[in-house]
Automatic annotation (TrEMBL):
InterPro entries per the UniProt record, alphabetical: Transposase_21
Protein name from the UniProt record: Uncharacterized protein
Record's compositionally biased regions (Polar residues): 42-56
Chain residue ranges for the region called Disordered: 24-154
UniProt-listed Pfam families: Transposase_21
Amino acid sequence: MSTPSAAADGSRENKVYCTCPRRCKGGKLVSRSTRERHQGELQRTQGQISPSTNLRNAGRAGVQPTMERGPGNFQQDQDKEWGTAGPSNSENQEIDIDNADRDNPFDEPDDIHDNSMPADRDAFGSDDDEPDARTPVPGSDDGINDDPTQSSSDSALEINLDNLRECQDFIDFIKAASLGDGQCGMLADDIESLMEPATERLFDENTTDPDFRLSLDCYLACSNASQDVYNKMRDAIKRRYPDSEILSYDQISRLVRNLSGVVPIIHDMCVNSCMAYTSPFSPLRACRFCSAPRYMSRKGKPIAPEDIIDDGVGALIPRLQFHTIPLGPQLQPLFRDPKSANNMKHRQIRTRKILRELQVNNVDFPTEYDDVYCGQDYLEAVRSGDIGEDEVLVVWSQDGAQLYQSKKSDAWIGIWTVMELSPHIRYKKDFVLPGAVIPGPNNPKHLDSFIFPSLHHVGALQNHGLRVWDASENRVRTKHPYVLYGTTDSVAAADLNGWVGHHGRKGCRYMCGLNGRHKPRTPHYFPVLLQPRNCAIIASNHPDVDINSLKASTPEDYQHNLQRILASPNQTQYKVMRRETGITKPSLFSGLSAITPIPRLFPGDCMHRDGLNLPELLLGLWRGTLESGTGDDKSTWDWAVLTGKVWEDHGKEVASCKKYIPVSLESHAPRNPAEKISSGYKASEYMVYLYGLGPGLLYGILPDIYWHHYCKVVHGIRTIHRPVIHQESLARALQLLLEFVLEFETLYYQRDMARFRFIRQCVHALIHMIPEVLCVGSPACPSNPFANLSRRAVIREQINALKAMIPDLELEKPCLPRGSLDVGQGYALVFPRESGASLISHPQHVAAISSYVQSKGIASSAIDENNILLERWERLRLPGGSTLILNGEPRLAEAQYFAQIQINASKHTVALVRLFSNWDTDLFRDSHETLMVCQLYGEHGSGYHATDGFFVTDVKDITSVVAMVPFRHRNNSSEYFLYEKLGFDHTSGRISQDSEEDSDVESDEDD
């Protein structure tokens, strides 16, 4: 059997990477002594380039100069490539495979560079030594900042405080990042594979060899199982087919690693999760926060730093490590198959279309928002030339995860989302790229040290460029990652962006400048707009704040305030500046050269805000469970009505809605909140409960003034979750959300300082929610469980990389259920069905069928209404998402059954439905367009002309699935209210683009 050779790690461990421009042309494998000689020559002749150098402008391909990108590059003729002005940027970056110079993969033609940097100048700095092992060899304890590059982006500004200098050290390393420096952490073989990508598709004899393919299929099938499962499967196959040469688990895992090119970077970390031994922390031998030793003996006993004698490789065993999965090797496979490479061109195609529409309509920004490409942040970067065709847009996201419900088991996970892809696929598991897995059991105390390897790698790719082979064009192109956004929840945002937390005086995540208010002798500030009564605290007694004056901070404001923080001469002044600016430190992301300008780099967190924080606050008020302040009598809380039996009955009504909501619409309908809300109610349940069912279920329970107020926030949140958001809708939603925030303080806080705790950042953030849509676009996640989580993340991405290069490896192919009948255009009749045709005797059904047949040109005299036979089906699968289109207007209907009718030579697939009336317009208006109550025709005397509400229609007139839930708060028992999934627009019948599965319409027929 022929299989790929699995080269052992470290086959070139005697080689190191030299980045000197004179002899190695920016990157070459040489011996250690050769690199030291080259670096010595470089230092003697010209010295070091400061890491503060703007590498993006100085030269993005190592030592090679690049063409400057000018503004207005996208106002070109439509037949020109959008990108840089002048010669096509794609031409500058493309390399013909047949004529490519493989000695230096970063070399580009010399004659295309206009504003060049001297070719012999080292733009990336160097390190004195570079260990070969993936785990860095510890150095001395003389100091943690032993890198020769000392100056920073704020070289003219002296940083006096140790904590700020430490942050700047991390940033400087990222600014000067290269794949060959001592901070990279990648082996020489891995760097070479990254710099010289394969230029052929991955479908040679390896993928056609039956034993290798069987081994690979078994490995993929067991990717979520244990290694033992694969071994048992292998043993069973060999018992049945003794001559088969199915590979062992170790063999196939090494081959997958080599074929995918995805290899983790491993660093030591504190055993208590405090910090990682990266960058300036790499020489330390004990945690600087808890003093826990870094190393242990072979018997597992911790070794105190003073007891370390031998620093040799292998003599010291790290007590705990974490994995970083570098971005570059994960991006390259996305270009190595023609289909996947074409998927990566979605952004380019969509951007051209948007720019043409803006030019035709003579406007600066779109009137509809359906993706980040419509946001001002992206379009302004495109127009300025910061984003072109050779950028790869990515978004960094991180969040904490608790692995076990019953014990402390925190872990942090970072991921990359590739924004080049269509929103239909970019959020699916096969295309979400893991970035880092930070083990628990505790939260990190120095998060920057953990995410540093990820950002350092991205910084190196921005400085050098990432060579990819585009299989759709059969040529190598140089790409540059562009970090569009960095996202996390509000609690972790302070570590990511370097701002004060949500309880700070300026705790707004959008840095709008609002000064919070606090109670006596309490350190927490709250974003209260209205001045409290009888308040003697100077910091809290400022006048009412005009809600219309609160604007998000600009990059210029942020930089000005950051300089004030960095210039703090002592700790006392630092605290003053921190309170006045809302900034605690520079963000680690500022070391990257290609990012959305800070603070716009860090948008809001709609998932936690809408799905957890705001629901918990509202329900805490309505249930009266929020803690009351001193002097605040809960008996005055006239809004606290969800108590006792009212709360119990309401919880049962919420749970009863499950049988009315199709599984295809919501796979997890909300449970009884009266029973489950204290034991882990999920964000998805809160979203369905409060923003979908809430207006109908809480009508008549909440006092009218509070119900009307609540409907305003429901309207706003439903608006931003639509698949396409129109400017007119945004204007209306903004008005209602501003009213909600002001009325929230008037109704609940009532200028009582004891109720400051009611006014939280999740309420204040609603002020900025609609303006953010304009900027960001539509917001359309064992014995050692943490080590196991890291291993699975690596395996998952190795498998994803293989699937991108070999689409045939996808085992789960979409298909219709067994026994289904495909009726075209994505529609299908689905089991169960009758075993044979049956007589239709229901007079209203007969009348509806007869009316449909006559509409197709058959005379009524030719229809025998006493002998209509149909084979009925119970379910219908839709192509994308039940509303019904009748005469061009959307209507609501309840499906009874589905069937096929033969009329002349044509077979028609139809649905017999029962229509609902149009919704109650008065209630729709009073609820701010959030509650649509209809009557079901045919119940208790409500009729619909001759067929009493029954109607036969072609199944392709059914556009989507909705739920109709009984509305029990008025005397009419035939009333129902509409529930539609967030992301659905009832005016157009469109489901959100992130719907991954087809939707099934279930009939209501019992017999």
